[in-house]
Amino acid sequence: MESTDQILVREQKWLELRRKLKDQFGKAPDVNAVLFLIGIRELGLFKKKYTKEEKQDLMHIATCSILSRSGYYELKGLDQDGWPHWVAKKKLPVMGLMEQEDFLKDHIIHYFDEMEY
What we know:
Strand content: 5-15%
Shape: globular
Strand order of the largest sheet: 1-2
Helix content: 55-70%
């Protein structure tokens, strides 16, 4: 169980990250939008338009990338189109919806901290 201080620190860092992204993109993104941006960055290919399937794939790339830092996934390699493929290395903890969102926020924050964004 998280302490109140841990929750407050996460929410403060999350709001700061959203503010920085809003300054850069004109709109404060939610978790899914941040995952989409991370996916684009990780893929290294920007297009003006993505299909719905590509958007889902980009969010999957982002999720695997941010969770790889905690040992949940490992990069297997790139396919012929340059898209990364990941292998699950350990089971994700069982969580409720809000816990999943907080879990992702923690990993997103850590990802951007590593980038010194």
